Amino acid sequence: MRHVLDRIYGAAAWAAALFMIGTLVMILLSVCGRLLDFHVRGTDAYAGYCMAAAAFLALAHTLKRGEHIRVTLILDHAGRRTRQALEIWSHAAGLLCAILLAWFSVRLAWQSFNFNDISQGTDATPLWIPQTGMALGCTIFAIAVTDEMVAVLRGEKMRHRAADSEPIRSE
Fold first, then answer.
1. Where are the domains of the chain?
2. Dihedral sign from CA coordinates of 111, 114, 115, 121
3. pTM, whole model, 2 decimals?
4. What are the tens digits of pLDDT across the range 72-95?
């Protein structure tokens, strides 16, 4: 199961990277269009859609690598039992938020599909298409938060002091 979940998180990260490239392509197309006097409709909207998809699809991979912002001021000074209770509480709160985010984003994409909702721009894109990236990213993120919660409940994921778990940054 671990292998399958890690592959899902990795695939979502690769998809996010491709959407970032899509954002770059849309921006370059828009800039080149201005310089060479041609216009491609919807490049601004498509750049925004790609950015949103990239952000949401990268959530799970970022969480699993420990790169989400985490304030450990209280955890660093708590005892073992208090720390474990706080870890469980924070993961449960995060899980609730992730599930709600996934539920409502999937619901939004589904409603856009059912109502044939289209963008207001000149591209007239059916909105369920870009919203699917958000819904998929949020769903994978909810799975990743569930995965983290299970690890915390098993005692596998007790965080170390902030100084020990701080990512190394090169300048």
1. 2-159
2. positive
3. 0.83
4. 777 788 888 888 888 899 899 999
